[in-house]
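Study the following:
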Amino acid sequence: MATPTRSALRAALLGAGLMLATQAMAQQQKITVAWYGGNWGDAFRACVADPYTKATGVTVVPEVGTSTTTLAKLQQQKNAPTIDVAWMDGGISELAAQAGVLDTLDPAAIPNLKNVIDQGVYRNGDAAYAVSTGYYSLGITYNTKEVPQAPTSWKDLWKPEYAGAVAVPSPANSSGVPFVFFLARVWAIDPSNLAPLYAKLATLDTALFFDSSGAASNAYQSGEAIIGAHFNVGAWDLIDKGLPIGFAVPKEGAWATDARLHLVKGAPNAAAARKFIDTALTPDAAACLATRLYLGPAVKDVQVSKDVARKLPWGAEGSVKNLSLFDWNLINSRRAEVTDAWNRQVVRKR
């Protein structure tokens, strides 16, 4: 018969073995997270993925792409998803919910949901399907050597001195379709009949219609574009690198949206995925994203430096209430129409 000492030793060894096995399993476990490229992906890794892996031992494998690319993948993989968590922008987020590729965010499994402002939790009825990780805006970015005076109006993009050097988003970019409706406001065009706006856009002599934020940043960095639309995130990244770039909010305002996290329906690693989302909703993660990307935090009571605060989409003293946000359901109901009209009346008539 084993002595009590031997029994205790055996139990201790067994417990240690189970602990090591659990740790090894955690180290072997991976989750796949869809996020954007460039400085966005770098920030998501530094602010969320690395702290998550450090705390859990679970490796994060990025699936890099734009929001529209990610949605297409989720639809293709609907019956057997390989992605666990997905970052997608406002607008594409609603389309993903309609496509039935998202799972519900359960506050019991993601307790840090309580840290998020009401506007930052997106619901179908009582069920949350997305949560904001921060807001950003689309303003005018310009080369300070070529454009020494900060532009004051979106109409400045049509000035003849900028011909062939303007950048604006295409409908393939998540900001492209809402940007069309935003420009309708700028030019006082009835959104129920956008034909006059398409005619106006067809006269805009552009360097490119960009499909991704990275393409826009590259164009401004290379000098291919000297003025146009860009996100505050991308513009300030270039400015911080010492490039001769400025960012302006014109008198007509700046359009804004947010980057959201989603749990994929049927995610192969759902429990670990929920923990990842929970990690992203801490004040530390939100402050890190604000510092690295100048995302306006959706998490409550986040503290940032004065220099960071002035670069947020709402400025040093503002909040989400100061942003110009669109009704995504209305925009999405006309997305196909706008994309088709853009291709026929803007691109082909250039």
